[in-house]
Structures are given as C-alpha cells and as structure tokens.
From TrEMBL:
Protein name from the UniProt record: Dihydrofolate reductase family protein
SUPFAM superfamilies on file: Dihydrofolate reductase-like
Domain of life of the organism encoding this protein: Bacteria
InterPro entries: DHFR-like_dom_sf (IPR024072), RibDG_C (IPR002734), Riboflavin_Biosynth_HTPR (IPR050765)
Organism annotation: Streptomyces bobili
Occurrences of domain Bacterial bifunctional deaminase-reductase C-terminal (ranges): 2-182
Length: 190
C-alpha cells in the first residue's frame, strides 16, 4: 500500500488559502509577508520532492500549479513525476502537455484504489477541498505541516468541520525555527 502524504503551509488557526500570493484572498501571500525567510525551515519541501513518487491534486490546485510549476527550477523533480488530479469536471483537453503523465481520477474510491497499487509515497500539495475529503475518508497517512505564527481568521481550512470520530495522530518529527515557523510531521494512527 502506498503512503498518502498531505503537505501544507498552514496558519496557526488552520488556514491554508493563498499562501503564495494567489488572488482573491484578503491575506494572500501570508507565507512571505512579515516572516523572515530561513532556508532550513523549508528543507522538508526539497525532501518531499526526492521521496515522493507521484503527486495528487484537486482541480483548483492543478489549474493553479500546472501553468507555472513545469518550468520552475524549484519544482524540477515534480516535472516528470506521475500526477493524479481528482475532478469530476476536468477533461483530457484541460491537461497541460509539458508536466509529465497526468491521470484524472473521478472519485475518492479511485484514490483509495491508487493507494493499493505498487509504488512509493504520493504527495498532496495545495488542494484544500480535496485534503478535507481525503482526511474525512481516512485516506491520508501522514501530514507534513509548516505552521506559520499567524492568525488569519477567515479562509479555506486544511481540516473539515465534519462531526466525526477522533482521528489520532503521532508526532514523528518536529522542529521550531527562529522565525516562529514550526515543522510538524504526523503519522495517522490506525
């Protein structure tokens, strides 16, 4: 069984919306405004590219990343990696040609089936709505969270507000940095 890893930049109050400056959100770009950049806090991002063998995205994140990431040196390891996009509306014609093999999945059942295949870890970037659905369905195995010392208030959240049974997590790696960021890696306890 493959490991499904959710990776996110998240505010202390759980917001994941528009960390990189995406338009339409009041606090857009919160990961680099008024936060001192410390390269060591982001080491996990390079490690993720080396360890992951596939990427899973929701439609909105795919449409945001696919025009930009294929040509970015910072994301070179993701270029040829197989990608899976969970969407009920995307068609093959909506996929970009310069970002490696991309497969459209139509349901969480198809994600569960993908996890049953041979291969290494699958990384989920962005994709707030997909992350909430995957978590509620019990499909996420690990969280890589870079927690920013900010309270953003309104915004898309990483975790849903569904009334569900407790999901226990085990902290397997953590570090605090001089700029207030915290790295927290949690395994989901089954």
């Amino acid at each position: 069984m493959r490991t499904l890893i959710s990776t996110a930049f998240v505010s202390l109050d759980g917001v994941v919306e528009a960390p990189g400056g995406e338009p339409g959100y009041r606090n857009s770009g919160w990961t680099f405004k008024d936060i001192e950049f410390l390269p060591e806090a982001f080491d996990i991002k390079g490690r993720e590219q080396k360890e992951a063998t596939a990427m899973l995205l929701g439609r909105t994140s795919y449409q945001a990343f696919s025009p930009v990431w294929p040509d970015m040196e910072d994301f070179a390891d993701y270029k040829e990696m197989p990608k899976y996009v969970v969407s009920t509306t995307l068609t093959e014609d909506d996929l970009v040609a310069n970002w490696g093999e991309t497969t459209i999945l139509r349901s969480l059942d198809e994600v569960a089936a993908l996890k049953e295949t041979e291969g290494g870890p699958i990384i989920v970037h962005g994709s707030a709505a997909l992350n909430r659905s995957l978590s509620d369905a019990g499909l996420i195995d690990r969280y890589h969270l870079l927690v920013f010392p900010l309270l953003l208030g309104a915004g898309k959240r990483l975790f849903s507000t569904s009334d569900k049974d407790t999901q226990k997590l085990k902290l397997v790696e953590h570090e605090a940095y001089a700029n207030g960021l915290q790295k927290n890696v949690f395994d989901v306890v089954r």
